[in-house]
Amino acid sequence: MTYWIHIQRSLDRVVLHRERCLEIPSTIGRADFWEGGWYEYPDKESALEAMENAGTSRLVHCSLCKP
Ligand SMILES: [Zn+2]
After folding, report:
1. Ligand 1 midpoint to CA 9 (Å)
2. CA of 5 to the centre of ligand 1 (A)
3. Mind listing the pLDDT tens digit for each residue in 51-65?
4. Which of 10, 20, 46, 62 has a Cα-to-Cα distance from 52 of 20 to 30 A?
5. Are 15 and 45 in contact (CB under 8 A)?
6. pTM for the full predicted model
7. Are the CB atoms for 47 and 2 separated by under 8 Å?
């Protein structure tokens, strides 16, 4: 299963989602590391590692898809 992380630098947090979560936009724009954006990972371990390396204060699990 694919996992997505949504880096929100303006909120100083990163959110973990499972694939097909309704919050994932249908078209992903080019990600800007400094503003944040959506990043896809092939498994949960990779996504969690990326979350920890995102540099934000809070790591959040989406309450909708409950990854
Ligand atoms: Zn979600």
Report:
1. 18
2. 9
3. 999 999 999 999 999
4. 20
5. no
6. 0.89
7. no
